[in-house]
Prior knowledge:
Elements: E1 11-15, H1 23-27, H2 38-43, H3 50-54, E2 60-64, H4 67-71, E3 75-80, E4 83-88, H5 93-99, E5 103-105, E6 115-117, E7 129-132, E8 135-138, E9 149-151, H6 154-157, E10 166-172, E11 193-198, H7 211-214, H8 224-238, E12 242-247, H9 254-267, E13 274-279, H10 286-295, E14 299-302, H11 309-316, H12 321-342, E15 347-354, H13 361-374, E16 379-384, H14 399-411, E17 416-421, E18 424-426
Parallel strand pairs: 3-9, 5-6, 11-12, 12-13, 13-14, 14-15, 15-16, 16-17
Antiparallel strand pairs: 1-2, 3-4, 7-8, 7-9, 10-11, 17-18
Amino acid sequence: MLVQNGLMKLFKAVARECVGCDFCKLFIKCGFLETLTEREKREYCVGCGACVAACPYEARQLIELSEDELRGVREVTVRIDGEKYSVPERITVLRALEVAGYKISKFPEWGDERTIFAPCGTGGCFSCAVIIDGKLQPSCITPVRDGMEITAERSEIEKELPLRIVSSFQGHAAGGVGTPYQIKPKSFLRAIEVACFAHGCVLRCPTCQNWTVVYSSVDEPLTPSQAAKLLTYERRRYRVDRLAISGGESTLNRRWLVSFLKELKKLNKDGKARLHVDTNAVILTEDYIDELCEAGMTDIGPDVKGLSLETFMRITGIEDEELAKRLKDTEWRAVKYLLDEYFDKIFVGVGIPYNPALISLEEVYKMGERLASWEPSVQVCVLDYRPEFRRRDIRKPNYEEMLKVKRILEESGLECVICQTEFGFVGP
Ligand code: FES
């Protein structure tokens, strides 16, 4: 099958007002074209957009190739699931898969073999990984090459061990929203759990607090077993019983996460280990929650990032209204399901963001009311969103403001409200 350039829009990333922070050069696996010079790599841009999503100064943008540039683009031949396709050389494998009839989605269609779930688009989560020349690689950032063999059939991919980039295995002093208040430390001098951070996220939060992990794709991916061994080693080193995975978004690569929890359970059989999943819950469907609990999850900290669609879109940076609605509805449904079905079986703590530039106190109150109507005793942790990433213009809420948010949430009917403040956590 031949796909003419003219039928397909081609893009490249350009830097408009680059300040030279070099994040995109140092932390993004650009093009996999190791043999080319940095300059040539940039000229060979396949328009995956990973550097555009990651640029903290929003200097990088995707633009369409000019007619002149389009004329210079050659066709290459790739084989997808055994069938030959001619495609423009300057596209990613993911776009080639679209040409071959696969549907690409930012929301998981679990069980649909012809849909490729590509949530992060930045090479970290490996949800979109297919077999490229015999090796599992993320299709979203890998350029096509002449003669490339691509296998995207689910049954073949599932014969491979799942992979994901996970980093920063370390002791953690503060815990997450899914850490019970009783064990949160009064000072942050001692670790209370060990944590690792999964790369890639479906959201594009302008205030992302962990963007260097979310958008980085240069580390080697790990199998669930490799990651579980590293985290278990850290548990012994820090002498704690809690093992957490955060991110990025930990739930993006379902097969990887379920297998990781099973491996952790196998390696930590002493009966004291708590397996904690920190998540924005935006793709956490009910069957996925069941599977995580069966695999060994004992603690979960889902976030809810707004009640109105407008607030959710402002906080998450998701511009596609339909996708935003789906993600928002899923996170609230996940919280309700956890409270209805698992509240007496595992620990559930819910996170709410607060910064006056992002969400009003009225909306925070309404979120509290909704949660209290489902389960008044659920632990709710309010996070003071600080200036970060693309919103360095906002001011971090001060101690008094956070106490006010706490009071408002208690008035809404919640019995266990924690606030993260500039001076540490303030509890119920
Ligand atoms: S969507 Fe490709 S690595 Fe996450």
